[in-house]
Write a structure and sequence with these properties.
Oligomer: single chain
Shape: elongated
Number of strands: 45
Helix content: under 10%
Length: 511
């Protein structure tokens, strides 16, 4: 007879570490014998058999954050009181579910359009972060389950963010939720630049650019810039759908209070201006304004912008030539253009350059804008507002001034047709002033009463854009109200008067 010692099983647990409350652990009791039934003990208390009675594996859900001792032994099948030795115990130490900490940067002075950065900190590894906004889970970004999240603030409201983490490889095991963080956003303030009295002025007039911020605080300081074509060293800013390049004015500091006054104005002040509002602590906010064009005209500019064909309205698909005719010794004259959609551009960015001449071979409505010549030293010509019309009718009016008492001839031009063969009606300020059998109207001696908006119309071909006929005194300096009232689909001609007149306010630009 061979007598053997009682067998002793071996117990193991999986996972062996990083066990948290709510985890499921698997205990295994290995015995190199057959014919035995496994019994399980937790802290010396026998556990009741599960469905797979006396199986050598046991799944346990960890309830408490504590140390628990497990061991096993086996009973000889069909021998009620015959057992193996107890296994050596295995100790399972469980920790409470971790709770992440959430933070936001910046913490205050948040405006719509700002980007905030949320951070979810967890002093553990092996977890994947999940983000919640107003209790709704956010979809993972490219850096899936990263512990930082960048969010663009859309609405001016209070938004609550929180985070938790899911145990990697455990589909339904999560940390606690972090405490929430609340982000309160306000409408983004805007810097609004305006000009008084008008943005079309005569040399010698006074004008003031005013910069205001749509914000209740008063601790803003302002600086002043002009919009320039791109070159090294200029500042790039984004405005609506395009990028502008701006250069700080040499005397910008005198407008730090929000007003920048030119008195008297000069031809070289022609250009497009931008102001910058800046606020220091606590948020260090910087805002750039809308671009504000300022157009100055003079009686003796150092250069003239020559337009060929010589008119301010042109058909789409036609060609156009603009050249700078020098009256001084300045060098490096270039044609510049300003449009609301693209800002200030050199000719080389929208046409072809030959010397000081700019050629456009195929016009489109996007060429509608204000054109002028500028030298390397900053001297300017008088600006000219050019309209490119997609319809079949345009009005031909003078580009340069006409003196009082001189004749003014307006032509109604038709696309691809001799104007003498078609009839046109001419309008002033919306009312018919002349029915013609030809496309021509002549004012034999212009006077102040001829000032207004003019356009022509053909009953079948359609009507032209309007042109502003400005009547001003020869050798005088009219107020801004008498200067060019606006820039849109309106072009203008100036009539020189040899007698004084009182400035009259233009009430309506577009109606």
């Amino acid at each position: 007879m061979t007598v053997s010692a009682k067998p002793k099983p071996t117990i193991s647990v999986n996972p062996q570490s990083s066990i948290y409350t709510g985890d499921t652990i698997t205990l295994s009791c290995e015995l190199q014998e057959t014919g035995w039934e496994i019994q399980w003990y937790k802290n010396y208390q026998q556990l009741q058999p599960q469905n797979n009675e006396h199986a050598n594996t046991l799944n346990m859900t960890v309830i408490n954050a504590e140390e628990t001792e497990y061991k096993c032994r086996a009973r000889r099948r069909n021998y009620r009181l015959y057992y193996t030795e107890f296994s050596d115990p295995v100790k399972v130490t469980a920790r409470a579910k971790p709770k992440p900490t959430i933070s936001v940067n910046p913490q205050s002075s948040i405006y719509t359009g700002d980007t905030i950065t949320l951070s979810c900190e967890l002093q553990e590894t092996g977890w994947e972060i999940q983000w919640y906004k107003n209790n709704q889970q956010l979809q993972p970004q490219n850096s899936e389950q990263a512990n930082t999240l960048n969010m663009t603030v859309i609405n001016a409201e209070e938004t609550e963010y929180k985070c938790r983490a899911r145990r990697r490889h455990y589909k339904h095991y999560y940390t606690e939720f972090s405490d929430p963080v609340k982000v309160t956003a306000r409408e983004r303030p805007q810097t609004v630049l305006s000009v008084s009295p008008q943005n079309w002025l005569t040399e010698g007039d006074s004008m003031t650019l005013s910069c205001e911020v749509t914000d209740s605080s008063t601790d803003w300081t302002f600086s002043w810039y002009t919009v320039v074509p791109y070159r090294d060293g200029v500042t790039q800013i984004k405005y609506t759908d395009y990028v502008m390049y701006v250069e700080l004015l040499s005397d910008s500091s005198r407008g730090s209070g929000g007003n920048y006054t030119l008195s008297p104005s000069a031809l070289h002040h022609t250009g497009v201006y931008v102001c910058r509002g800046e606020r220091g602590e606590p948020d260090g906010y910087i805002l750039y304004s809308n671009p504000q064009p300022l157009w100055i005209t003079g009686e003796s500019p150092p250069v003239s912008l020559i337009i060929s064909p010589s008119r301010t309205q042109h058909f789409t698909r036609d060609s156009l030539s603009l050249s700078c005719e020098d009256q001084s010794n300045s060098t490096g004259w270039t044609v510049r253009r300003y449009t609301d959609s693209e800002g200030v551009l050199y000719c080389s960015q929208w046409g072809s350059v030959t010397g000081s001449t700019c050629n456009i071979s195929f016009l489109s409505t996007s060429y509608t804008g204000v054109y002028w010549c500028e030298s390397e030293s900053g001297e300017n010509s008088n600006p000219v507002n050019i309209t490119v019309h997609e319809g079949d009718v345009i009005l031909e009016n003078p580009v340069h001034p006409v003196s009082e008492g001189h004749p003014l001839t307006l032509h109604c031009l038709y696309r691809n047709t001799n104007p003498s063969n078609l009839r046109a009606d001419f309008y002033k300020d919306g009312s018919v002033i002349q029915n013609q059998t030809t496309g021509e109207m002549i004012i034999h001696k212009v006077s102040t009463s001829d000032e207004g908006f003019y356009h022509c119309k053909h009953p079948e071909r359609g009507e032209s854009p309007r042109s502003w006929i400005l009547v001003r005194l020869s050798g005088s300096s009219p107020t801004g109200a008498d200067a060019e009232p606006c820039v849109n689909d309106v072009t203008y001609a100036r009539l020189e008067l040899k007698r004084m007149k009182k400035a009259r306010k233009i009430q309506d630009c577009f109606h």
